[in-house]
Specification:
Largest sheet: 5 strands, parallel
Number of strands: 5
Shape: globular
Helix content: 25-40%
CATH topology: Rossmann fold
CATH class: Alpha Beta
Number of helices: 5
Strand order of the largest sheet: 2-1-3-4-5
Number of domains: 1
Strand content: 15-25%
Distance between the termini: 12 Å
Bound molecules: ligand CA2
Length: 145
């Protein structure tokens, strides 16, 4: 049975590729989903990509993942910097968690330098553009063995 990997995205990432291309590039979330699905197939895994603008919905998706996913790759977007609820939900997930940021959050405003989720994540990728999702996916497949 192929390993199941959830790629979870937080608020405003549904608009990826439509604004601020100098910060986030021009790929859309649908492009990310297509590229990750293709890479997952090469690596013998399966991905499901989800996005929500709502903190509680993201918490519920993480809770559901306890029964449906072996690992989670998450870009919590702005909730990275504010959400103890998402951190708590991830702490109740037993598999590996990897955190992705498209931009280099450490090069930006100081309020973006801290992420609550990083305390839970096995690894963090920031500043590699949307390529970060693919790098995280390769790492996740290795972690899942
Ligand atoms: O760099 C990242 O991936 C972020 O998680 C993106 C968040 C930001 O709040 C974090 O500090 C860093 C913002 C997501 C906004 O998504 C859009 C991207 C392009 C166009 C419109 C929205």
């Amino acid at each position: 049975m192929p390993k199941q990997i959830l790629i979870l995205n937080g608020p405003n990432l549904n608009l990826l590729g439509t604004r601020q291309p100098e910060v986030y590039g021009s790929d859309t979330l649908a492009d990310v989903e297509r590229d990750c699905a293709a890479l997952a197939a090469e690596l013998g895994a399966e991905v499901a990509l989800k996005q929500s603008n709502h903190e509680g919905a993201l918490v519920e998706m993480i809770q559901e993942a306890r029964n449906t996913a072996d690992g989670i790759i998450i870009n919590p977007a702005a909730y990275s910097h504010t959400s103890v609820a998402i951190l708590d939900a991830l702490n109740m997930f037993e598999g590996p968690v990897l955190e992705v940021h498209i931009s280099n959050i450490h090069q930006r405003e100081s309020f973006r330098h801290h992420s609550f989720v990083s305390a839970r994540a096995e690894g963090v990728i920031a500043g590699f553009g949307v390529e970060g999702y693919q790098l995280a996916l390769r790492r996740m497949v290795n972690l899942l063995g």
